[in-house]
Design brief:
It is built from 21 helices and 25 strands. It has 628 residues and is an alpha/beta fold. Bound molecules: alpha-L-arabinofuranose. The site of alpha-L-arabinofuranose has 12 residues, from helix 12 and strand 22.
C-alpha cells in the first residue's frame, strides 16, 4: 500500500473523528427539526457546567426560546466546571464561525480577557455571571451585590438580635457573583455589631462539597451557628444535609436561585429544608430574544439588563408559585391601552431636549397616552406633578429625578395606589427598593471613569502636575454624584492630576460660562484641563476661555459628557477634546416597559444604555450620523 494511500486514509479517519467529536461534545440544534431550513445565524453557547440546577435551567430556557426561531442554529457547550475547557470551548465555537456568542462563566478573572478578544470580532452576550469591565455587547443577569444585601436583610429579620454566629458558604471565589454576593451580605449585616460572621467555607456552588466542608467545620465546634448563608440553593441543601447528619436543630439556612425543580430552592422551602431564597432569573429567554435583535441589527440594544430578584419565604412560596403559573399562561394582548404620566425634570440642556423628544415620539409611535409635564428643575414641583398623576389614576408613572433623595413619601403614595414607577435616566436613593419598579438609563460612574481614562492616556508623557477645573452638574443629582465619583476613582491612581476646584454649574450653558469665568479669574493660566459634567457647561466654558484670550482645546483641554451635536461641532473645530456619550433616546425602552407593565409582565429591574466616547477624529467621522 503506497505511502500516499496510507496518508489519505489517515486524513479521512481524522476528519471523521473530528466530526464525531464535534457532534459528541457540542449538541447542535436547528430551530425546527432536520428539514432544510435557511439558516441565517449560528449562535454559540458556552456554559461553565450543566451540573448546577441553575445552569441546567439556563440551558433549558435558552433551548426552549431558541426553538421558536427556525433560521438559527445553536451550538451548546458544557465545560464540566473546567475553566481550561471553557476557554477551549469558546475558541472552538469561534473557529466554527459562530455569528454571536452567549457565555455564562465561573471564573471572571480567567475568562474576561478571552471574552474581550472574541468581542473584538463578534457580538457577545454575557449571561448571569459578569465579567470585569465593559468589553461585551450585553450583560443579562442579576445585581449580585443587591442579592447579598437582600440576604443580609432577610438574615437580620430571621435572627432578630441572636446573630453572633453566622457561617457563609461561598461559590467559586474567582467568580464575580460570589465576590459581590459576599460583599453585599457582609457590608450590610456587619453594619450591626450584634451580627458576627464567624466562619466561611468555599464550596464552588456544589451541594456535596458544602455538606462535607460544613461537617468538617461543625464536627469539633462547641458553639453552633445561628444562621448559614449559602450563595446558592445547591450549597444550602448541602448545609441542610450536614446539620441533619449532626442531628442539630434550629439553624436558619438562606440560599439563592429559587429554581422550581426537585432539590431546587422553591422545593427546599416547601419541604422546610431552608428558610428563604432569592429568585435569580437565568435570563436564558431574554438572551435569545436580544441575540436575534443584535443579529438583525436592531438599534438601541442596551448594555446591561439587570433582572429583578424576589425573596421567597415559607410564608409566600405558594403565592409566588401561583403568580409564576399565571405568568406562564399569560396572553400577550395586542393594542394595549396604557396611560403613562411622565414628570420631566427640566429643560436645562441639549440632552434634556433630545430626551423629551424621544419620549414624545416613542409614545406616538407606540400609541401610548402620554401625559408629560415639566418641573423646570424644581423637586417640589416634580413631586406635585407625580401626585397629580396618582390622582388621575394613570397606569404607569415615570420621571427623571432632579436629585437622589426626598422621594419616599410620594412613591409610597404611588405604591399604595398600585401604580408602578419607572425611573428614567437618573436613579434615586431609597431604603425600600420596592418603591420603584424599574430604572432605564446610564451608568454615570462609568461615564466619569471614561472621561478620566482619556485624560490620563492623553497626557501620559508629562510628569508635570495637571491642574483641573471640574464643572459639576446639579448638586445631589445622580449624574453629578456618579460622574464625580468615577472621575476621581480613576485619578486616584495618578497623583500628578489635581482638581483645583469643583464649581457648581447646574448643567446649563449660562452657569457653565459663569463658573468658568470665576475659575479663570481665580486660577488663569494655571488651568490645564476643564472636566464638565455635560456639554452645555463645556460650551459655556469654551466661550469664557475665548473671551479670556486663551484657546479652548489647546491652551486648556476640555472634556464633557453627553456627546450631543453641539459637542460634535466643538470637537470637530478642536475647541473640545473629548466627549463621553450619555444616551437621551430612552423613549422606545420606556414605552415597551410601560406596555409590559400594563399587561402584568415582569420587567427588568434595570436597563443600562449602551454608550460610546468620541475624540475629535471620531466626531468628524460620526458627525453626519448624529441625530441629537
Ligand atoms: O441626567 C442626565 C444629565 O441631565 C445630562 O447629562 C445633562 O445634560 C442633563 O441635564
Amino acid at each position: 500500500m503506497s505511502k500516499k494511500i496510507g496518508y489519505r486514509t489517515v486524513i479521512f479517519a481524522a476528519s471523521i473523528g473530528f466530526l464525531i467529536l464535534l457532534i459528541y461534545n457540542y449538541s447542535i440544534t436547528d430551530g425546527k427539526g432536520e428539514e432544510e431550513q435557511e439558516i441565517d445565524y449560528v449562535i454559540g453557547v458556552s456554559q461553565p457546567n450543566l451540573l448546577e440546577p441553575w445552569q441546567l435551567l439556563m440551558h433549558e430556557e435558552l433551548s426552549t426560546e431558541a426553538a421558536k426561531y427556525n433560521n438559527i442554529r445553536v451550538i451548546y457547550t458544557d465545560a464540566a466546571q473546567s475553566t481550561k475547557q471553557q476557554i477551549e470551548d469558546i475558541h472552538t465555537l469561534k473557529a466554527y464561525g459562530i455569528d454571536l456568542l452567549i457565555v455564562s462563566i465561573d471564573n471572571s478573572t480567567a475568562l474576561t480577557p478571552v471574552i474581550s478578544k472574541i468581542y473584538e470580532e463578534i457580538p457577545v452576550i454575557v449571561l448571569g455571571r459578569g465579567v470585569k469591565g465593559y468589553n461585551y455587547t450585553l450583560y443579562i443577569g442579576s445585581d449580585h451585590y443587591f442579592i447579598g444585601e437582600m440576604a443580609a436583610e432577610a438574615a437580620m429579620d430571621l435572627l432578630g438580635d441572636k446573630g453572633e454566629n453566622i457561617i457563609e458558604i461561598k461559590g467559586v471565589t474567582s467568580a464575580q457573583q460570589a465576590e459581590k454576593r459576599s460583599k453585599g451580605f457582609r457590608e450590610t449585616i456587619l453594619k450591626k455589631s450584634e451580627y458576627k460572621i464567624t466562619d466561611s467555607v468555599v464550596a464552588d456552588w456544589q451541594r456535596d462539597k458544602a455538606e462535607d466542608r460544613l461537617k468538617e467545620l461543625l464536627q469539633y465546634r462547641l458553639n453552633l451557628p445561628n444562621l448559614i448563608y449559602a450563595h446558592n440553593d445547591a450549597m444550602a441543601l448541602g448545609a441542610y444535609k450536614a446539620i441533619k447528619a449532626l442531628n442539630v436543630k434550629d439553624i436558619i439556612i438562606i440560599g439563592s436561585d429559587g429554581v422550581n425543580k426537585p432539590n431546587g430552592g422553591l422545593q427546599l422551602i416547601k419541604e422546610e429544608k431552608i428558610d428563604t431564597t432569592f429568585i435569580t432569573p437565568t435570563g436564558g429567554k431574554e438572551a435569545v430574544q436580544y441575540a436575534m435583535e443584535i443579529l438583525n441589527q436592531e438599534t438601541e440594544i442596551p448594555k446591561k439588563i439587570i433582572l429583578r430578584n424576589h425573596q421567597v419565604t415559607r410564608k409566600n412560596v405558594n403565592e409566588y408559585l401561583q403568580k409564576k403559573d399565571e405568568e406562564i399562561h399569560f396572553q400577550k394582548k395586542e393594542n394595549i391601552e396604557v396611560t403613562l404620566g411622565f414628570a420631566q425634570v427640566g429643560n436645562e440642556s441639549e440632552f434634556r431636549a433630545a430626551n423629551t423628544d424621544s419620549i414624545i415620539t416613542a409614545a406616538e409611535t407606540e400609541g401610548v397616552n402620554l401625559i408629560l409635564e415639566n418641573a423646570y428643575n424644581n423637586q417640589e414641583k416634580q413631586i406635585e406633578i407625580i401626585r397629580g398623576f396618582i390622582e388621575q389614576g394613570v397606569d404607569v408613572i415615570a420621571f427623571s429625578p432632579k436629585v437622589e433623595h426626598g422621594w419616599e413619601e410620594v412613591l409610597q403614595e404611588a405604591k399604595d395606589a398600585g401604580i408602578p414607577v419607572i425611573l428614567s435616566d437618573r436613579q434615586i436613593k431609597v431604603n425600600d427598593s420596592s418603591l420603584w419598579t424599574s430604572f432605564i438609563g446610564s451608568d454615570f460612574v462609568e461615564e466619569g471613569r471614561r472621561a478620566a481614562r482619556w485624560l490620563v492616556n492623553e497626557n501620559n508623557e508629562t510628569e508635570d502636575v495637571t491642574h483641573i477645573i471640574e464643572l459639576e452638574g446639579t448638586r445631589n443629582s445622580g449624574p453629578a454624584i456618579g460622574r464625580k465619583l468615577g472621575f476621581e476613582e480613576v485619578l486616584q491612581g495618578y497623583p500628578t492630576y489635581q482638581i483645583l476646584e469643583s464649581l457648581q454649574g447646574d448643567f446649563t450653558f449660562a452657569k457653565g460660562k459663569e463658573m468658568m469665568n470665576t475659575a479663570l479669574i481665580r486660577y488663569g493660566h494655571v488651568i490645564d484641563v476643564v472636566y464638565a459634567h455635560n456639554d452645555d457647561m463645556a460650551i459655556g466654558a469654551i466661550e469664557a476661555i475665548e473671551e479670556f484670550g486663551l484657546q479652548p482645546g489647546t491652551d486648556i483641554k476640555i472634556i464633557s459628557i453627553d456627546a450631543t451635536q453641539k459637542a460634535f461641532a466643538a470637537l470637530s473645530t478642536g475647541k473640545l477634546n473629548f466627549s463621553v456619550e450619555c444616551n437621551p433616546l430612552l423613549g422606545p425602552q420606556l414605552m415597551k416597559a410601560a406596555k409590559d407593565l400594563k399587561m402584568g409582565k415582569e420587567i427588568p429591574m434595570k436597563i443600562i444604555t449602551s454608550e460610546e466616547t468620541f475624540t475629535q477624529e471620531e466626531a468628524k467621522q460620526e458627525m453626519k450620523k448624529r441625530n441629537y
